[in-house]
Helix-hairpin-helix motif protein
Amino acid sequence: MKLWLNIAYILVVLGLGLASLWPNLTVRFAPAQFYTPSTPGLEATSTLRPGPALPEVQKVNLNTASQAEIESLPGIGPALAQRIIEGRPYRTLEDLERVKGIGPKLLERLRPLVTL
């Protein structure tokens, strides 16, 4: 008899053996246990105190701001700030797109930070 046939027969017998044992197999799980660290002398408080209020973001008015104020905006350097000043007055934020160096992406970044 060939070796692979012997192995196949053994696997069949093992399979039948496990199949006959299956109804008798039980799995028991231990109840879940959780670790709760504690420090002696400290008690948990159930009240939350409000944190410090966040400072309100002051929007930069592009029609009246100084060059330094405009340069404080993200993505705006001295040259671009100067071009923004030279392009005044602006009636809408979309008017900023006519300034060389301001595209749709930068305009969207500036939108919550500026006013007219």
